[in-house]
Amino acid sequence: xxALTRTGDRTTPTGVDTRLPWWALALPxxxxxxxxxxxxxxxxAAAAGxxxxxxxxxxxxxxxxxx
Length: 67
Known about the structure:
Layout: H1 23-40, H2 53-66
C-alpha cells in the first residue's frame, strides 16, 4: 500500500506558515517613511529660531513619558 505524500505545502514541519503577506512589510515601511519625512521636513525650517526638529521631538517624548 503506497503512502500519500503532499507536495507544494508552504508550512514547516511544525505547521507554521512562514510566508508574510505583502502588506506586512509595506505598512511599516510606509509609516516609518511618513514619520521620518514629518520630523525632518523643511516645513518650519526658515522660521525656526531656537530648537531643532529632532530636539523638539525628543523633548516632547520626554515630557509625555514623565506624566
